[in-house]
Design a protein that fits this description.
By secondary structure, this protein is an alpha/beta fold. It has 2 domains: 145 residues, Up-down Bundle (Four Helix Bundle (Hemerythrin (Met), subunit A)); 157 residues, Rossmann fold (3-Layer(aba) Sandwich), CATH 3.40.50. Helices cover 52% and strands 12% of the residues. A 7-stranded mixed beta sheet has the order 2-3-4-1-5-6-7, with helices on both faces. Helix 2 packs parallel to helix 5, helix 3 runs antiparallel to helix 8 and helix 4 runs antiparallel to helix 5. The longest helix has 31 residues. The protein is rod-shaped, with a radius of gyration of 29 Å. The C terminus is likely disordered. The structure holds guanosine-5'-diphosphate (GDP) and magnesium ion (MG).
């Protein structure tokens, strides 16, 4: 979690007060002793501020070593350079706070009365708060980003990946289940209102990951806002093969149009599949009508083994992104 500036400030003050309650110095109260106590107090505030701020950049992945899929997803939120800049800003704030601390420590050495010391503390707290407040946008930006990053879908980058696409109701969810034989893992798809579903099957030593993105690769990308579009485009860094599912009971031209757009967005080899074979009198002519590679019934499992083989074949010739 990245804390808000109010929480950071509150935490620092609370922890410092608590700590100062345990500090006992020998001797009677004198201005000298009060100075020493105030010195410890300012250093304690500073230590806690540094602790709070240092924790922030550590909560983000190393942006230079991030997988392109995650990088592209982050880009949907803000340019990577902007994210780096905002994280860097936290380090700059730490430096400013250190200089305010040094100034306060210096003022303490010159304080002649308890009232002087009180003023130093007020100056220190006021100025540190001002610095946080002036940078509120940075903290808010990183808070929001972090909330999304920590829920990024957990993708296996060592596995080959099949991305399913096709109209709503074409049978993507049913096919995902048929191909992988298990309930998919569901995670929110960042920067969209949709989920991503991930299942997998194994072929010999190789794990194949199958991804369904309902509400994403089933509609015209031109209807998406720029953020959604970037989030969708991130999938191109993942897809080794696209399986495009045609519904024989929906408009062929519109489905082919979607396929063209998906191909354009993702640029991976495509396997074209007509689904719902069990409901077709003439599967062969449906296959021809859609220009498909094969006909399956996701519901009944017909042709699913063949589809798996076709996927493996396609991956075997794969364009070597991860070979
Ligand atoms: N008869 C038949 N129905 C299917 C087949 N595949 C999917 N369906 C049905 O079509 C509807 C939509 O399927 P679903 O997998 O949710 O489609 P999605 O929107 O692309 O994920 C559901 O009612 C499924 O039961 C199939 O091969 N045969
Ligand atoms: Mg679905």
């Amino acid at each position: 979690m990245v804390k808000s500036i109010d929480t950071i400030y509150g935490t620092v003050v609370r922890k410092t007060n608590k700590y100062m309650g345990t500090v006992k110095l020998p001797g009677r109260l004198s201005i000298d002793k009060a100075r020493k106590l105030e010195h410890i107090r300012i250093k304690t505030y500073d230590r806690h501020f540094a602790e709070e701020l240092r924790a922030i950049p550590k909560q983000f992945p190393d942006l230079d070593r991030l997988h392109p899929f995650y990088r592209a997803l982050l880009e949907a939120y803000a340019p990577i350079d902007k994210i780096k800049e905002e994280i860097g800003r936290i380090r700059a704030i730490m430096k400013i706070l250190a200089s305010i601390r040094d100034e306060a420590l210096f003022q303490i050495t010159k304080a002649k009365t308890l009232a002087d010391l009180k003023r130093v503390r007020r100056m220190y707290l006021g100025r540190t708060w001002d610095v946080l407040e002036k940078n509120k946008k940075t903290f808010d930006f990183l808070r929001k980003l972090h909330r999304v990053v920590r829920r990024f879908p957990r993708v296996d980058f060592n596995a080959k990946t099949v991305v399913l696409a096709g109209f709503p109701n074409a049978g993507k969810s049913t096919l995902l289940k048929a191909l992988t034989g298990s309930e998919p893992e569901i995670a929110p798809y960042p920067f969209t209102t949709q989920d991503i579903r991930i299942g997998h099957f194994e072929h010999r030593w190789q794990k194949v990951q199958v991804i369904d993105t309902p509400g994403i690769l089933d509609r015209d990308p031109s209807e998406m806002n720029p953020v959604e579009l970037k989030a969708v485009a991130a999938l191109k860094h993942l897809a080794d093969v696209i399986v495009f599912i045609f519904d024989p009971f929906q408009d062929p031209a519109m489905q082919r149009d979607l396929l063209t757009k998906v191909e354009h967005l993702i640029r991976a080899p495509v396997i074209r599949v007509v689904n719902k074979a069990d409901l077709l009198d003439d599967p062969v002519s449906a296959k021809q009508e859609f220009g498909a590679d094969m006909v399956v019934s996701a519901q009944h499992g017909t042709g699913v083994d063949e589809l798996r083989s076709k996927i493996i074949e396609e991956l075997g010739w794969s364009h070597g992104r991860r070979d």
